């Protein structure tokens, strides 16, 4: 009889497939372990579903991001511990990677896993199955009589050394339904070589990057396409275009195999600027429809402080190349960095306007900076006295969504929210009812004048627009 392992993905805002749990489940020896993935986003009562599934299970694994999903992760883990006190509970993913031992202050969590989890979790499952202690398993933190111990870190394994993700572990059709399109999520690399001062990746993966070979990707993706008939593929990599030659080889695999779907991935502006037209053209022929280019700021001074290692001109050149090749793009911005001047915020808003004028296929969401753990900026503000959340509950309240961040004045917040509304509304689809208000909105955008936002109130009262950020 195989041992049952329950893996839980907490509730969150979007319907991206739970790739982390699929990675863990796929790497376990399935002759010995039966894997059940439960996704809080798909369950009416996640707590009851997980508690019931854990009956006679070997352990519970939970994937945890910093922010709102922690509340749900906690509720589920606590209920499981209360119902099955001897069942080991393991938290992995970004938050327990950043806070290995601190997370263990919560008594319902037995083990935390840091970084890449496939081999570590396999070893944990072996230990649990044999009734042995987890002492000495690399890449974990756990409780001992004297307190907590963090074991030696586990080196990052090349992705080709790990098995393909088994999509039959989830109900793929259900995700298509919830996303409203037949879009498959896929991850082809882990980590990132860069050092942006607001990002935790350099801390978690030590500026290392590993990726799947194009040949393996071609084979896997062809199988998935024939099985699930997806029409769009979303690469969830931090920096998909890290090596242009690799991306070109992936595009060639798609074309050679006659795969027909569109796809999207992340592109740094310096990579877009360096990539030759032939490679971009090849990608478009292979289905590339949109890239995501993190701009963060329209001010070069701010970009340098953020250690983006990108020039403002490279953003504009990458945008021009997208226009030339008919590629859509999302250009996310972040405002409200500690001490950010009005001039710097204004430079970002100007850049947003410039990009939006270049193509109707360009989106420019604006987020407010929050000091997510593990980044250089967060470390600096903490040294200057900023108090990060202390408990898991407090971390659960710490989320980008619905927050203006700590360094944004009420005036700046109001200005940005109005700017976002009018720029979006002015360029949105026209109807006879909206046209007169849209004309006023365009007039406002041209003059950068957003006082007395009567149309905003009217439109929001009539029909709340979905938030772009
Ligand atoms: C898809 C994605 C999401 C999805 C789903 C996340 C999920 N539950 O898996 C959605 C859209 C919900 C999401 C939301 C957010 N995300 Co997000 N997201 C990603 C993204 C692009 C890919 C994650 C992924 O699937 N990777 C592939 C898998 C295989 O890798 P993995 O998740 O790292 O998992 C491995 C290990 O971490 C470990 N592991 C993970 N879980 C577990 C569990 C156990 C038990 C074990 C043993 C091991 C283990 O093993 C896995 C295999 O090696 C990453 C960037 C990236 N490329 O990693 C950002 C990222 C994870 N997101 C991030 C952020 C900031 C957010 C938001 C907070 C942002 C926001 N508010 O706009 C929100 C969450 C808040 C909310 N209210 O929902 C940050 C994480 C920061 C942090 N401290 O948590 C990342 C790293 C982006 C970044 N560089 O800033 N995200
Ligand atoms: S923001 Fe993107 S490019 Fe910068 S360090 Fe993070 S993952 Fe890498």
Ligands, ions, cofactors: cobalamin, iron/sulfur cluster
- What's the CATH architecture of the domain at 181-369? Alpha-Beta Barrel
Q: Quickly give the structural class.
A: alpha/beta
Strand residue content: 5-15%
User: What general form does the structure show?
Assistant: globular
Count, helices = 19
CATH topology of the domain at 181-369: TIM Barrel
Low-pLDDT segments, ≥5 res: none
Q: Report the helical percentage.
A: 40-55%
Compile the SSE list and pairings.
Elements: E1 3-9, H1 19-27, E2 33-39, H2 46-53, E3 59-63, H3 69-83, E4 89-92, H4 94-98, E5 111-113, H5 118-130, E6 140-144, E7 147-150, H6 172-179, E8 183-186, E9 189-191, H7 201-205, E10 209-211, H8 214-228, E11 232-235, H9 244-256, E12 262-266, H10 269-274, H11 277-285, E13 288-292, H12 300-305, H13 312-325, E14 328-330, E15 333-335, H14 342-358, E16 362-363, E17 366-368, H15 376-383, H16 392-396, H17 410-427, H18 435-447, H19 454-462
Parallel strand pairs: 1-2, 1-3, 3-4, 4-5, 8-11, 11-12, 12-13, 13-14, 14-16, 15-17
Antiparallel strand pairs: 5-6, 6-7, 9-10
Helix pairs in contact: 1-5, 2-3, 8-9, 9-11, 17-18
This protein binds cobalamin (B12) and iron/sulfur cluster.
Name the descriptors.
alpha/beta, TIM Barrel, globular, seven-stranded mixed sheet, 19 helices, binds iron/sulfur cluster, Rossmann fold, binds cobalamin, six-stranded parallel sheet, 469 residues, single chain
Q: How does this structure look, described?
A:
The mean pLDDT is 94. It is built from 19 helices and 17 strands. It is α/β, with parallel strands linked by helices and 469 residues long. A seven-stranded mixed β-sheet has the order 2-1-3-4-5-6-7, sandwiched between helices. It has helices at 19-27, 46-53, 69-83, 94-98, 118-130, 172-179, 201-205, 214-228, 244-256, 269-274, 277-285, 300-305, 312-325, 342-358, 376-383, 392-396, 410-427, 435-447, 454-462; strands at residues 3-9, 33-39, 59-63, 89-92, 111-113, 140-144, 147-150, 183-186, 189-191, 209-211, 232-235, 262-266, 288-292, 328-330, 333-335, 362-363, 366-368. The longest helix has 18 residues, at 410-427. α8 (214-228) crosses α9 (244-256) and α9 (244-256) packs parallel to α11 (277-285). It is globular, with a radius of gyration of 23 Å. Among the domains are: 3-140, Rossmann fold (3-Layer(aba) Sandwich), CATH 3.40.50; 181-369, TIM Barrel.
């Amino acid at each position: 009889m195989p041992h049952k392992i329950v893996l839980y993905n907490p509730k969150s805002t979007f319907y991206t497939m739970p790739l982390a749990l699929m990675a863990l489940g796929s790497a376990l020896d399935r002759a010995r372990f039966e894997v059940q993935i439960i996704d809080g986003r798909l369950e009416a009562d996640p707590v009851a579903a997980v508690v019931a599934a854990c009956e006679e299970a070997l352990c519970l694994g939970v994937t945890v991001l910093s922010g709102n999903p922690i509340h749900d992760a906690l509720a589920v883990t606590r209920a499981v511990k209360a119902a099955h006190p001897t069942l080991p509970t393991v938290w992995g993913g970004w938050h327990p990677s950043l806070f290995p031992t601190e997370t263990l202050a919560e008594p319902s969590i037995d083990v935390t896993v840091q970084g890449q989890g496939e081999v570590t979790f396999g070893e944990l499952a072996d230990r649990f199955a044999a009734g042995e202690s987890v002492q000495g398993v690399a890449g974990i933190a756990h409780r001992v009589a004297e307190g907590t111990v963090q074991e030696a870190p586990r080196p990052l394994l090349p992705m080709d050394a790990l098995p393909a993700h088994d999509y039959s572990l989830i109900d793929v059709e259900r995700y298509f339904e919830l996303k409203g399109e037949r879009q498959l999520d896929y991850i082809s690399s882990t980590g990132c070589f860069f050092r942006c001062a607001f990002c935790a990746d350099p801390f978690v993966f030590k500026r290392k990057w590993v990726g799947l070979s194009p040949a393996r990707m071609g084979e896997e993706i062809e199988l998935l396409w024939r099985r699930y008939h997806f029409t769009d593929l979303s690469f969830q990599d931090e920096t998909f275009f890290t090596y242009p030659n690799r991306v070109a080889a992936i595009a060639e695999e798609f074309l050679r195999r006659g795969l027909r779907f569109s796809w999207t991935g992340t592109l740094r502006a310096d990579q877009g600027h360096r990539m030759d037209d032939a490679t971009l053209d090849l990608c478009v022929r292979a289905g590339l429809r949109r890239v995501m280019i993190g701009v963060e700021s329209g001010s070069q001074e701010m970009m340098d402080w953020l250690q983006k290692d990108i020039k403002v001109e490279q953003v504009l050149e990458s945008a021009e190349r997208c226009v030339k090749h008919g590629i859509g793009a999302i250009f996310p911005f972040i405002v409200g960095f500690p001490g950010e001047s009005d001039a710097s915020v204004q430079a970002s808003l100007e850049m947003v306007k410039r990009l939006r004028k270049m193509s109707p296929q360009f989106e420019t969401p604006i987020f407010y900076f929050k000091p997510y753990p593990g980044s250089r900026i967060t470390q600096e503000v903490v040294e200057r006295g900023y108090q990060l959340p202390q408990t898991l509950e407090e971390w659960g309240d710490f989320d980008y969504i619905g927050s203006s961040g700590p360094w944004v004045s009420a005036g700046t917040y109001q200005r940005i929210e109005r700017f976002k509304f009018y720029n979006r509304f002015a360029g949105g689809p026209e109807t006879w009812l909206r046209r007169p208000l849209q004309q006023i909105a365009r007039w406002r955008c041209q003059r950068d004048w957003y006082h007395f936002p009567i149309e905003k109130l009217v439109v929001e009262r009539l029909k709340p627009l979905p938030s772009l950020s």
